[in-house]
Amino acid sequence: MPSRTPPTTGHDAGQPRLLVVDDDPDMLRLLSMRLGAAGYRVTAVASAEAALSHLDIERPQVVLSDVRLPGKDGLSLFDEIRRRHPSLPVILLTAHGTIPDAVEATSRGVFSYLTKPYDARELLDKIAQAVALHPAAPAPRSADDAWRAEIISRSSRMADLLAEARLIAQGDASVLLRGDSGTGKEVLARAIHKASRRAKKPFVAVNCGAIPEALLESELFGHVKGAFTDAHANHKGLFQAADGGTLLLDEIGDMPPALQVKLLRVLQERAVRPLGSSQSVPVDVRIISATHRDLETAMAEGQFREDLYYRLNVVTLTLPTLAERREDIPLLAHHFLMQLAPKYNKRVSGFAPEAIKALTMASWPGNVRQLYNVVEQVCALSTTALVSLALVQRALRTPSVSVLSLAEARQRFEREYLVGLLKMTDGHVADAARLAQRNRTEFYRLLQKHKLTPGLFKSDGGADDNGDQTSVADE
Predict the structure, then answer these.
(1) In a domain, 5, yes or no
(2) Bridge partner residues of 149 (DSSP)
(3) Which helix (H) or strand (E) holds 112?
(4) Is the residue at 243 inside a domain?
(5) Percentage of the chain with pLDDT > 90?
(6) Among 110, 283, 324, 378, which is least packed, fewest CB within 10 Å?
(7) Contacts of 461-465 spanning 24+ positions with Cβ under 8 A
(8) Contacts 24+ apart (CB under 8 A), 266-271
(9) Number of independent structural domains in the chain
(10) What is the SS3 assignment for 427-463?
């Protein structure tokens, strides 16, 4: 019997990678042969679940999927891919009965769809168009990778973010970088600058929340001699210093409202007027802004101007927290350790396995910046070639995230689910069992298993559904 998941065809890492999903083994084999012959490296799987598992291991440039699949269908697969990898093109193959669904999916972001029986040439053309829009990531340490050399990652989530960043870098659209403190917004802004046509011009960064309002205006726009008491000479502001290049306005959400008006005028007129001057100076600057604040809430509260928000937020990139890219923690920790060892004149070669596990399981509220600080502390204190678990625990000063077994996780979820139902139904077991789609006897067994007493959830502390007392042990 033929395999339902033919092996990957082709071994050249330079070939565009396709992920093909179809539960028909004959169709899967035919597609693999045709696409392999056309120069693609094909991975073929028979279900949406298998496709999602593969995406956790390797990210292709295009996904080609049948709509009708066992279990999760092709449209559900598309929705999950869009959630995980927003820029990854998906092409759907549909039967005539699913065309309306496919058209709707196209409006939600599916790259294209073809009806069966499909035209082979049209399929190849669509795939070529999708590949052109989503080129392969450059090989590690290649010359093409220099723009993002400061970003250490093997996370697929970061790979998607960097692919989008590189596309954005080709134009001059204003970019808003969102993310928690310490996630690396300035590092990403610098990478976008390096990948742009402005790379040979200045990159200038200013923290809008760290400079008093009276000084920030002069710092941004400059001043002329005599503009205020301490203005002993003309001063070019950061806009002029960044002319031809990129200006990062970090923590833009903390900019005072009065300055927001002046910044908006500069962006509209592409010129700055230094304090005390009657003349405007033209500037050519690409603006990248960054914030950890919720600007939508700030707008609703009147703390941030709506017109400025839309000027700055032409394109948004959101950096994941370190907890959302845990696979990068060992990589980053080792990189930082090798960077810091010469500074502290230490001959360290890495972390003990238990130390790496503790780092990987930590909660990291301070993200990459906190990880760097922890690694610097353990490097400074280390007296052995391998950094020990004790040093890491001392530097973290926070409890590690515990990893539950699957059985423990199920047990915890089941108990929390039952508690939620009892709260929702005011302790009425019949209603709770109906919501859980279980008969009362089975539901009582579940309550007894988790030692839950329905009467405790009754607002009146009364009897249960039969007028009996509330202990499930009596059932």
Answers:
(1) no
(2) none
(3) strand 112-115
(4) yes
(5) 37
(6) 324
(7) 464/427, 464/428, 464/429, 465/428, 465/429, 465/430, 465/440
(8) 266/221, 266/239, 267/174, 267/308, 267/311, 267/312, 268/311
(9) 4
(10) CCHHHHHHHHCCCHHHHHHHHHHCCCCHHHHCCCCCC
Which of residues 283, 318, 353 is at a domain's end? 318
Residue 354 in this model has a pLDDT that exceeds 70: yes
Question: What does DSSP assign to residue 275?
Answer: B
Residue 103, domain CATH:
3.40.50.2300
**pLDDT band for position 11 (cuts 50, 70, 90):** very low
Most confident residue range from 183-192, 389-398, 461-470: 183-192
Q: Tell me: the pLDDT tens digits for 447-466?
A: 888 888 887 777 655 544 44
In a domain, 2, yes or no: no
Residue 349 in tokens: 């070669």
Contact 176, 289 (CB under 8 A): yes
The CATH number covering residue 370 comes to 1.10.8.60
Average pLDDT over residues 105-124: 78
pLDDT mean over 314-330: 92
Predicted confidence at residue 6, as pLDDT, reads: 33
Q: Could you tell me if 110 and 156 lie in one domain?
A: no
What is the helix, strand, coil percentage profile of the chain, to 5?
50, 15, 40
Q: What domain range includes position 392?
A: 322-396
Of 62, 92, 58, 89, which is closest to residue 76 (Cα–Cα)? 92
Contacts of 211 (CB under 8 A, 6+ apart): 219
| 452 falls within a domain | yes
Distant-in-sequence, close-in-space partners of 140: CB < 8 Å, separation ≥ 6: none
DSSP state of 196: S
Taking alpha carbons only, the member of 240, 267, 259, 336 closest to residue 305 is 259
pTM above 0.70, yes or no: no
* Maximum average pLDDT range among 62-66, 220-224, 468-472: 62-66
Q: Which of 318, 340, 372 is the last residue in one of the domains?
A: 318
pLDDT digits (tens, 9 = 90+) for 258-277: 899 999 999 999 999 888 78
Question: Which is nearest to 44 in space by CA: 18, 69, 26?
Answer: 18
Report strand pairing: 271-272 vs 281-282. Answer: antiparallel
Lowest mean pLDDT among 37-51, 143-157, 222-236: 222-236
What one-character DSSP code corresponds to residue 203? E
Same domain, 151 and 284: yes
Please tell me what DSSP assigns to residue 97.
Answer: G
Query: Cα–Cα distance between 169 and 194 in angstroms, integer?
Result: 8
Find all residues with CB under 8 Å of 94, minimum gap 6, and list them. Answer: 66, 67, 74, 101, 102, 113, 114, 115, 116
